[in-house]
């Protein structure tokens, strides 16, 4: 059984009922939903095997890109601090889990719902299917070498590795990029989509990126820090306003209340934020 799960193989249709066909391989029987297509007894069908949420043997002809030894991007659906991150890999009735053992000890750097992770699958001795994050070799295999023409370009990418030296990104065009801590206001989380600009191209074809605005687009540092904080929040809001106490502001942002109010004033003047019902909310986009 273990060697069949999370793999693609050909099985024989041996039975059916109103809702499902039943296929067999190596003495193991799997359920195949009739809604996926018509088959007849004795037919050989290619598909992907897995256990659904109720631990029932399932088989689908809608083969996911992500499987054993095959990497692809899945979408994060939820997180559980006691278990890890759930990822949609294209199965209609099951998400797979990336174990907390593969994630940062800092929960604020865990992926959030809607983020993207590149992974393959593994099956443990209890027939549980787990997501396995792609390593650096996988990203090296799919990357394109960057050229000097990309200097100063604006790019979109997904964070795929967090390290003390900085953040690693795969762009939409399959370039690899590096963000030094000095080129960001706040560390992006794993799987987060970021908007970055190219500030250099290394001889090995890897991009040096920045999450900070260009000089002529720059806004005061305190305002930029608050803007970056809001952009990182799921609902793009925070329970801090010009009515918050100096102690709250100092503890959260490390600046005085006067600095905080000036920063808020700058952002409101540019119509990037609003204050309402005790919250500061993002209403516009910065570069």
Salient structural properties:
single chain, 287 residues, mainly beta, five-stranded antiparallel beta sheet, five-stranded mixed barrel, 18 strands, 37% strand, elongated
Report what the structure shows:
Helix content is 14%, strand content 37%. The protein is built from four helices and 18 strands. It has a five-stranded antiparallel β-sheet, with no helix packed on it. The model has no long low-confidence stretch (mean pLDDT 92).
Q: What general form does the structure show?
A: elongated
Report, as a whole number of angstroms, the end-to-end distance.
52 Å
Largest sheet: 5 strands, antiparallel
Secondary structure class reads: mainly beta
Count the beta strands: 18
Lateral arrangement of strands in the main beta sheet: 3-2-1-4-5
Strand proportion, as a percent range, falls in 35-45%
Segments where pLDDT lies below 50 for 5+ residues? none
From N to C, what is the helix and strand string? EEEEEEEEEEHEEEEEHEHHEE
The number of helical segments is 4
**Rg for CA atoms:** 24 Å
Helix content: 10-25%
Write down the overall mean pLDDT: 92
Reconstruct the topology from this structure.
Elements: E1 8-16, E2 20-25, E3 28-33, E4 44-51, E5 57-60, E6 72-80, E7 84-88, E8 96-99, E9 116-123, E10 129-133, H1 136-142, E11 154-163, E12 166-171, E13 176-179, E14 193-201, E15 207-210, H2 221-232, E16 237-238, H3 246-253, H4 257-269, E17 273-276, E18 279-282
Parallel strand pairs: 8-10, 13-15
Antiparallel strand pairs: 1-2, 1-4, 2-3, 4-5, 6-7, 6-9, 7-8, 9-10, 11-12, 11-14, 12-13, 14-15, 16-18, 17-18
Helix pairs in contact: 2-4
């Amino acid at each position: 059984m273990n060697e069949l799960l999370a793999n693609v193989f050909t099985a024989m249709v041996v039975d059916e009922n109103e809702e499902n066909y039943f296929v067999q391989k190596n003495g193991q029987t799997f359920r195949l939903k009739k809604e996926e297509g018509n088959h007849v007894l004795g037919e050989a069908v290619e598909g992907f095997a897995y256990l659904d949420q109720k631990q029932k043997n399932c088989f689908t002809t809608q083969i996911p890109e992500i499987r054993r030894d095959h990497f692809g991007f899945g979408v994060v659906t939820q997180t559980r601090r006691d278990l890890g991150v759930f990822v949609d890999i294209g199965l209609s009735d099951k998400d797979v889990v990336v174990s907390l053992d593969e994630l940062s000890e800092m929960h604020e750097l865990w992926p959030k719902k809607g983020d993207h992770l590149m992974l393959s699958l593994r099956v443990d001795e209890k027939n549980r299917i787990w997501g396995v994050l792609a390593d650096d070799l996988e990203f090296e295999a799919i990357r394109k070498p960057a050229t000097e023409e990309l200097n100063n370009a604006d790019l979109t990418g997904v964070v795929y590795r967090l390290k003390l030296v900085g953040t690693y990104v795969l762009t939409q065009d399959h370039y690899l990029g590096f963000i030094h801590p000095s080129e960001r206001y706040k560390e992006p989380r794993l799987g987060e989509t970021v908007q970055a600009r190219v500030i250099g191209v290394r001889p090995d074809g890897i991009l040096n990126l920045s999450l900070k605005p260009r000089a002529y687009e720059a806004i005061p540092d305190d305002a930029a820090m608050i803007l970056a904080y809001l952009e990182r929040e799921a609902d793009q809001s925070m329970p801090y306003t010009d009515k918050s106490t100096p102690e709250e502001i100092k503890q959260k942002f490390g600046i005085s209340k006067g600095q905080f109010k000036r920063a808020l004033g700058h952002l409101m003047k540019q119509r990037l934020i609003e204050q309402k019902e005790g919250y500061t909310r993002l209403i516009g986009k910065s570069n």
